[in-house]
Specification:
It is a single chain. By secondary structure, the protein is of the alpha/beta class. The chain folds into 3 domains: 398 residues, no CATH class; 156 residues, STAS domain (Transcription Regulator spoIIAA); 190 residues, 3-Layer(aba) Sandwich (Beta-carbonic Anhydrase, Chain A). 53% of the residues lie in helices and 10% in strands. It is elongated and about 110 Å long.
Length: 797
């Protein structure tokens, strides 16, 4: 790697810039993180059955090495609770020196991951598995440390600890149990204390008070932290394992994968925390969104996950060489770092320096800490790995089973087997969701002729796996009934197609009727081209698709009213209303629940972004062509999108316009014409001279006709673009109505600077919505740089 690739190019310049810019932010943040890291590092080392000094070595190496080389500037690296179970098992199996060698190899493997640029692949692991793994580790830590807290010794497995716990609780407890419970109580109470008090890290306060209590009692039987004289004395070279190389390779892979996944998940979480905190107004905190800060490491700059993987790998290799624990990016220390105001990676590096000075100069204080205090700290840390928010999240995504099975697998078996069990279950559930269709049948009502009416809904991928269940559901439909069969399917395999097609033919042969409604791209009948392969596409909502595309093949009445052999007038009326009834049912079935939260927010509030005048032509759907929704447009429609110019006369257009401007105070007035307008055709054909309802209305369009014939620039530009006379007149009409709107505002003394007026033209053939450029006197596509996108997705000039 080159110096530039690891961020060392121009180091003296960067250092001077950091000292003068961000040091005042990073220094206090590093002290806060240091105070949190020391007790956690000691406790994690104790829980891992490793030398206590190994936790401090890992904290130093993680802070300095990963802090300098990693790709997540604000992430803090150190020994993590997520690896305690793995490390404890490795220590009991191979010994501590061989475990250090495994850590070195795992670090080199992580470096390889980073160089291959596969860091983001680790994020493909289901969050339910990751959170379940952490929860299982948390339960394992709690079960083991409860024995230490109560003055006993933990068993070899979590299940043994669980079985021995009642007997441990029944025995007589001494000062160790009191100290451990006091630490737990303080840590639980600490987040509820006033903010000024909570600025001091809770773990530091709890361990300090527990240590002072142990000194006062001076209980000789109280187990304390054991240090080998100094931190330097704990440094030693690793030793290669002497047996079972296949198992060693599996251990290396396990440590590398878990450390990588935990670090990358932590890095992405830190990015979110930094983005929430980032503000361009804060000195040294980065500039505009997406740009690095003044030192190249502003929090607005996202983590480089491949570089972070390399940094973590180098840190693990160095930690293992020096006799330290494996390290990962730790969200507890990282979130503390962000919340304390850190600006650059200097905070993580300084925190490692403080840990080193503490371990070298104040080793006597470390040896005063009772093991029960660290056990109480670890019990709380273990419980915090079982997060209620994670459980709610995976339950919302229907992955609670994966979470629970993974956690139980880690507790009952071991970490690797538990993760593998969770992974297999997740894959099985995903396959089930992919290939398992939803089939539902219900009796709607009995028709006027006594014929039963049923509704059968099939949704998803209909494969041979769903045929048995499909057969059971269809078997409940009585012969001779009318059936609405709705297929919302993206794929029909041969077996499912044959079964469904055979059932439809058999049901119709026995006197029943089947109204087939094919929503998805996979078709059952020949009038839909059946896709030769699976189609991975979203089915558009029915209310967005033209009705003719999905209702054209529906019979008129569900009980046979649409039969062409029956000409009863009432049945014909029912047939005419059926598309509306089907559409309303479709809205209730698919759209009402999704729309309800938006409508609830609009209850009692009517603040549209614009007054939108357009033609009554059914081909114009204002909310679709403007990508807007409920509450955005105050829409008025009439034939030809005309505005009567006689202000004395009362008209619905004038009333709506006055209400929009004077009551709703809309910021924009829009008038939209369209191609092939029937009103413009009527004007050109002389219908504006007729004494009829349509003719009298079209007289309001005569000024537009006269303006077009006089050679209006908009009409000439449209003619130059090859537009028909009808479209030329429609465009001129829009331009003239824009002028009428401005006259309307002037007549009511409305400040023109507060209300925008815009002309628009919808080309039905191309589906393009053009806007009137009054400076150039022609309709063009809206320039992106002159548009403002509102929160509702509505485009306004």
């Amino acid at each position: 790697m080159s110096p530039t690739s690891i961020g060392l190019a121009g180091t003296p310049t960067r250092l001077r810039s950091w000292i003068h810019g961000s040091l005042r932010y990073d220094l206090p943040a590093s002290l806060v993180v240091f105070l949190v890291a020391v007790p956690l590092s000691l406790g994690i080392a104790a829980a891992s059955n490793a030398p206590v000094a190994a936790g401090l070595i890992a904290a130093v190496v993680g802070g300095v090495v990963a802090g300098l080389l990693g790709g997540s500037p604000l992430q803090v690296t150190g020994p993590a609770a997520g690896l305690t179970v793995v490390v404890a098992e490795l220590v009991s199996r191979y010994g501590w020196a061989a475990t250090c060698a495994i850590t070195v190899a795992a670090g080199l493997l992580q470096v390889g991951f980073g160089l291959c640029r596969i860091a983001r692949t680790a994020l493909a692991l289901s969050p339910a598995i990751v959170h379940g793994m952490l929860a299982g580790i948390g339960v394992t830590i709690v079960l083991g440390q409860l024995h230490v807290l109560l003055g006993g010794e933990p068993g070899s497995t979590p299940m043994r600890n669980l079985l021995d716990l009642p007997a441990q609780l029944a025995t007589r407890h001494d000062h160790a149990a009191l100290i451990g419970l006091t630490v737990i109580g303080l840590l639980v109470l600490w987040p509820r204390l006033p903010r000024p008090v909570r600025r001091i890290p809770g773990p530091l306060v709890a361990v300090t008070l527990a240590t002072l209590a142990a000194v006062v009692w001076n209980d000789v039987d109280l187990a304390r932290v054991e240090m080998p004289g100094s931190l330097l004395a704990a440094v030693h070279l690793p030793v290669l394992p002497d047996r079972d190389w296949l198992a060693v390779a599996a251990a290396v892979l396990t440590v590398a994968v878990i450390a990588s996944v935990e670090s990358l998940l932590s890095a992405t979480a830190v990015d979110r925390l930094a983005a929430d905190r980032a503000s361009p107004d804060v000195p040294g905190q980065g500039g505009p969104p997406g740009q690095p800060g003044p030192h190249g490491y502003g929090p607005s700059r996202p983590s480089n996950l491949d570089r972070e993987m390399i940094g973590q790998g180098v840190a693990n290799s160095v930690s293992g060489l020096l006799g330290g624990l494996p390290v990962t990016g730790v969200i507890v220390r990282s979130s503390t770092n962000v919340n304390a105001g850190a600006r650059t990676r200097g905070s993580a590096v300084l925190h490692g320096v403080w840990v080193l000075l503490f371990a070298v100069l104040l080793v006597v204080l470390v040896e005063r800490i009772p093991m029960a205090a660290l056990a109480g700290l670890l019990v709380v840390v273990g419980l915090q790995l079982v997060k209620i928010s994670d459980i709610r999240r995976v339950r919302r995504h229907r992955e609670l089973t994966v979470y629970v099975v993974t956690a139980l697998g880690v507790v009952v078996f071991n970490l690797l087997e538990g993760v593998l069990i969770g992974l297999v279950l997740a894959v099985v559930l995903i396959l089930r969701r992919v290939v398992w269709a939803k089939v539902h049948a219900e009796r709607v009502r009995a028709g006027p002729t006594g014929r039963e009416h049923w509704s059968v809904h099939v949704e998803g991928t209909l494969s041979f796996l769903a045929v048995p269940r499909l057969s059971v559901v269809l078997g409940r439909v009585p012969p001779g009934s009318t059936v609405d069969l709705e297929l919302v399917t993206d794929f029909l395999d041969h077996a499912a197609f044959d079964h469904l097609d055979g059932w439809v033919r058999q049901h119709e042969t026995t006197g029943g009727r089947v109204h087939l409604d094919e929503v998805g791209p996979a078709a059952l009948r020949g009038d839909h081209p059946r896709p030769p392969r699976r189609i991975h596409a979203l089915v558009p909502p029915r209310w967005f698709s033209p009705w003719s595309s999905w209702q054209a093949r529906h019979p008129g009445h569900p009980d046979g009213a649409g039969d062409p052999n029956r000409a009863d007038q009432s049945e014909a009326v029912h047939a005419a209303l059926r598309p509306l009834h089907v559409g309303v049912r479709e809205y209730h079935r698919r759209s009402a629940a999704r729309l309800r939260p938006f409508l609830t927010g609009l209850d009692g509030r009517h603040e549209p972004y614009s007054f939108f005048l357009t033609c009554a032509d059914a081909r114009i759907v204002p909310n679709v062509i403007t990508s807007s929704g409920p509450g955005d447009l105050f829409t008025v429609r009439n034939i030809g999108n005309l505005i009567p110019t006689d202000h004395v006369a009362e008209s619905s257009v004038a009333a709506a316009l006055s209400y929009a401007v004077e009551v709703l105070c809309v910021p924009a007035l829009l008038v939209c014409g369209h191609s092939g307008c029937g009103a413009m055709q009527g004007l050109l054909g002389g219908r504006g001279e007729e004494e009829s309802h349509v003719g009298r209305w079209l007289r309001w369009g005569r000024p537009s006709l006269d303006t077009w014939r006089a050679g209006h620039p908009v009409g000439l530009a449209a003619a130059g673009d090859g537009r028909t006379e009808v479209d030329q007149l429609a465009m001129v009409n829009v331009a003239r109505q824009v002028g009428v709107l401005r006259e309307f505002l002037a007549a009511r003394d409305v400040d023109a600077a507060k209300v925008s007026v815009q002309g628009m033209f919808f080309d039905i053939q191309t589906g393009l919505l053009l806007v009137l450029d009054e400076r150039r006197q022609r309709f063009t596509s809206p320039p992106d740089q002159e548009l403002e996108i509102t929160g509702a997705g509505f485009v306004r000039p």
